[in-house]
Specification:
Keywords: Endoplasmic reticulum, Heme, Iron, Membrane, Metal-binding, Monooxygenase, Oxidoreductase, Transmembrane, Transmembrane helix. By secondary structure, this protein is an alpha+beta fold. It has a single domain (41-508), classed as Orthogonal Bundle (Cytochrome p450), CATH 1.10.630. The chain is built from 19 helices and 11 strands. The strands form 4 sheets. It has a 4-stranded mixed β-sheet. Strands 3-11-8 form a 3-stranded antiparallel β-sheet. α7 packs antiparallel against α8 (185-200) and α7 runs parallel beside α19. The longest helix has 45 residues, at 3-47.
């Protein structure tokens, strides 16, 4: 018999042996992973035993209670039933504690626990590691660096730029309502707030509201908001490789490319502008720099400037946060006033007495709109732009009622639940601006449309100013009414949106 004939069975036997070893090793690893998951679930069950919730499936958690997108209403029933906080199981080994009590939230926001890794890492391919997701000393340096961009001397001249953007939008509305009084406003408002950000924070000249190409950026933001939200809740998409290979992952990648193209172009144009002779020194001599100026001239404590990656991350973060959250706040406020004509008319009379028939609005006017301010705050209570934020406990915590949680448990600060909590706000579904009347009192952490603590929204004053300008000028031009055939349905995304848009009926005022 030849040597080759003898060697073939030996080779096959060797391959078979390797397959057996590989199979055994795979089985051992699988058993170890199963044991790890089992121990993690047991640890969570013990950690969360003080926080009851509705019965959950051992694998699917509470997912079957939230089959459609309107999960906010079922969660509000939990808010009524379970005092202060409750556990929410996403699946077998992933759970978090929903918190919707002001005393509980005050304790959490007074600490320095990091943002939830599982939730916020999904945003990094989109907005990078900017102010929203940074932690520790790097976050502190960036926050301190950017704070001067929101000094009131910087914000003052922005009021005129905001008014210009709002007028462009309202002019478009006049043309559209001459054909049909029904209008979906959120899309238009999003374009207007992006236009405002481009003018105020990035010194963009002219209006982008007539640029059709910018619609692709707005749509990409909408897509990424939906995709990020759904990914957090999908057990199979937690793995980056699996997600990248999925249809949703490829869709997300394309949308990220579109947003990055937009921000890269903004940075490129600003850099080119600064390279013009005399322009650089002119900017350096300004007492206060705008947002992008600060980023381009920034020096860290070690003397280094921001890398291109860090620069784009901050621009991406502010471009998204600065326009999308404000667009949500303005659109829901207009809907709330459309649904309550008596409050709408009182706001209109206030702004008419202040501005007359003209539309020139200044910084000083913003402090002379008490009723409009009350209505905006009440709308932000009913429709907080950011319905949830997330934290991972870095050390054990004990709440005011004595209940406690160990380090490692994820928390969800449920601002939508807080604002609709009947133990905090009597008759929480009623639109009642008098809750925010001068002299009224409430818990320091009962109203958090811009979060709270050291990581509150850096642009909250900018956002409030823009909302006042937009609401005031809109009410001077139009009478608003809801569209009874298309009542908006709030849904949680990165920013609070409506499942079916925000549709209003508009009537031009003479």
């Amino acid at each position: 018999m030849s040597v080759s004939a003898l060697s073939t069975p030996r080779a096959l036997g060797g391959v078979s042996g390797l397959l057996q070893v590989a199979s055994l090793l795979g089985l051992v690893l699988l058993l170890l992973k199963a044991a790890q998951l089992y121990l993690r679930r047991q640890w969570l069950l013990k950690a969360l035993q003080q926080f009851p919730s509705p019965p959950s499936h051992w694998l699917y958690g509470h997912m079957q209670e939230f089959q459609d997108e309107t999960e906010l209403q079922p969660l509000l029933k939990w808010v009524e039933k379970y005092p202060s906080a409750c556990a929410r199981w996403l699946w077998g080994t992933k759970a978090l504690v929903l918190i919707y009590d002001p005393d509980y939230i005050k304790v959490v926001l007074g600490r320095s626990d990091p943002k939830s890794h599982d939730s916020y890492r999904m945003l990094i391919p989109w907005i990078g590691k900017g102010l929203l997701v940074l932690e520790g000393q790097t976050w502190f340096q960036h926050r301190r660096m950017l704070t001067p961009a929101f000094h009131y001397d910087i914000l003052k001249p922005y009021v005129g730029l905001m008014a210009d953007s709002v007028r462009v939008m309202l002019d478009k509305w006049e043309e559209l309502v001459s054909l049909d009084s029904h209008l979906e406003v959120l899309g238009h408002v999003s374009l207007m707030t992006l236009d405002t950000i481009m003018k105020c924070a990035f010194s963009h000249q002219g209006s982008i509201q007539t640029d059709r190409k910018i619609q692709s950026y707005i749509q990409a933001i909408k897509d990424l908001s939906n995709l990020s939200f759904s990914r957090v809740r999908n057990i199979f998409y937690q793995n980056d490789i699996i997600y990248r290979l999925s249809p949703e992952g490829r869709w997300s990648h394309r949308a990220c490319q579109l947003t990055h193209q937009h921000t890269d172009e903004v940075i490129k144009m600003r850099k080119a502008h600064l390279q013009k002779e005399g322009e650089l020194e002119k900017v350096r001599s300004k007492r206060h720099l705008d947002f992008l100026d600060i980023l381009l001239f920034a020096r860290m404590e070690n003397g280094s400037s921001l890398s291109d990656r860090e620069l784009r991350a901050e621009v991406d973060t502010f471009m998204f946060e600065g326009h999308d959250t404000t667009a949500s706040g303005i659109s829901w406020t207009l809907y709330a006033l459309a649904s309550h004509p008596e409050h709408q008319q009182r706001c209109r009379e206030e702004i008419q007495s202040l501005l007359g028939d003209g539309t020139s609005i200044t910084w000083d006017h913003l402090e002379q709109m008490p009723y409009i301010t009350m209505c905006i705050k009440e709308a932000l209570r009913l429709y907080p732009p950011v319905p949830f934020i997330f934290r991972d406990l870095s050390k054990p915590i004990t709440f005011p009622d004595g209940r406690s949680l160990p380090a490692g448990v994820p928390l969800s600060l449920f601002f939508y639940g807080l604002h609709h909590n009947p133990k905090v706000w009597p008759n929480p579904e009623v639109f009642d601006p008098s809750r925010f009347a001068l002299g009224s009192s409430q818990h320091s952490h009962a109203f958090l449309p811009f979060s709270g603590g050291s990581r509150n929204c850096i642009g909250k004053q900018f956002a409030m100013n823009e909302m006042k300008v937009a609401v005031a000028l809109t009410l001077l031009r139009f009478e608003l009414a809801p569209d009874p055939s298309r009542v908006p349905v709030p849904i949680p995304r990165v920013v609070l949106k409506s499942k079916n848009g925000i549709h209003l009926q508009l009537r031009k005022l003479l």
